[in-house]
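Re: the 186-residue chain
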Amino acid sequence: MLRRTVLLFSVLIAVLLLNVYFSYRATAQLVDSEKWLAHTYTVLSAIDDLEYSVQDSQTSADDYVITGKPEKLTAYREYISRAQAKTDVLRQLTTDNQTQQASIDAMKTKLVELGQFLDAAVNNRQQGRATAPPTGEKLQVVMQSIGKLKDHEAELLQARSEQVGGNLRTTRGGLLIGSLATLLYC
C-alpha cells in the first residue's frame, strides 16, 4: 500500500513538474508572440503616418502652386520632411524583415522622385513662372509602394494573431491540466 502511494505521488509530482515546464514555456511563447503582434501594429501605424505625410505633401504643393501662399509652402516642406523621417522610422522598425527593407528601398526611390517633381513645381511658382499644379501620377506610384508595405504587414498581422491565439489556447490548456492534477491529488 505504501509503495503504491509513493508511486502515485511520484507520478503526480512528475505530471505537475511537466505541467510547470510546459505552462512556463507556453506563457513565454505567448508573451513573445504578443510582443511581435504589438510590433506589427506599430509598423502599421508608421506606414499610415507615412501615407498621410506623403498625401499631405502632394496636397500642400498643389495648394502652394495654385495660391502662392507662403503658409502652403511651409506646410509642403514640413510634410515632405516628415515623410522622409517616417521612411527612416519604418526602416528601423523593419530591420528584422528583409522583404520590407527591399520594399522600403524601392518606395524611398519613388518618394525622392515625387519630392523632386513637387519641388520643381514649387520652384517654378516661386520664380513666378506659370505652372500647372503637379499631377497625382507620381503620388499614385508612391502610394502603391506604400500599399505593398501595408499588405505585407497585414499578412504578418494575420499570422501573428493566429499564433497568439494558439499560444493562448496552449497556455490555458496547461493551466487547466495543472489545476486538475492538483485537485486530483488533494
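The chain has a mean pLDDT of 88.
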